[in-house]
Design brief:
The relative contact order is 0.18. Strands 1, 2, 3, 4, 5, 6, 7 and 8 form an eight-stranded antiparallel beta sheet that branches. By secondary structure, the chain is of the alpha+beta class. The longest helix has 20 residues.
């Protein structure tokens, strides 16, 4: 009889329960609280994400408002972002869940978005990065927030990178 050593989780092992129906509900609740704090303080509270690989320095957060593709109502959520000149780069990771987040599907239906960084609000046009541009941006995004690589390892879908450009 052989003893098998206990397995220790590797950094890229998918957490148990990630597909639980409660996970999106928790994400939604935390997002609503973050949006309220961000708006009330101009981003002084809620303007940095300090969880996972972002601890303790923090990664910048912006507020993105899309229009619901079914309801037509504005939907605002906090997202990590990377500045790229006058562009804002977002990642539709949803923590490595198997489906793209609703906000991403909303902007596919209507690319006009509003992006708030601190107290500055801009109208922008959002689009999915082409493969070549994604290949250039992805390492920069991972350098900013290493957990994006984990999220990609946890899902079979290619996580979209979204580029927001100033609206004309």
């Amino acid at each position: 009889m052989t003893d098998t050593p206990p397995t220790t989780p590797r950094p890229f092992d998918r957490p148990q329960g990630l597909d639980s129906p409660i996970v999106p509900k928790i994400i939604k609740l935390v997002s609503r609280l973050n949006v309220a704090a961000y708006r009330a303080t101009g981003g002084r509270i809620g303007g940095k994400w300090r969880i996972g690989s972002a601890f303790p320095r923090g990664v910048p957060v912006c507020l993105v408002t899309t229009r619901g593709r079914k309801s037509g109502l504005p939907r605002t959520l906090p997202l990590l972002f990377l500045r790229d000149g006058d562009r804002v780069v977002l990642v539709a990771s949803q923590g490595g869940l198997p489906k793209n987040p609703l906000w991403y599907r909303n902007l596919q239906a209507d690319p006009q978005v509003t992006v708030q960084i601190r107290s500055s609000v801009r109208r922008m046009l959002a689009g999915t990065a082409e493969p070549a541009e994604r290949a250039v941006l992805w390492p920069r995004l991972v350098a900013m927030y290493a957990d994006f690589d984990q999220y990609q390892a946890w899902t079979d879908r290619q996580i979209p990178v979204v580029i927001c450009e100033p609206a004309p």
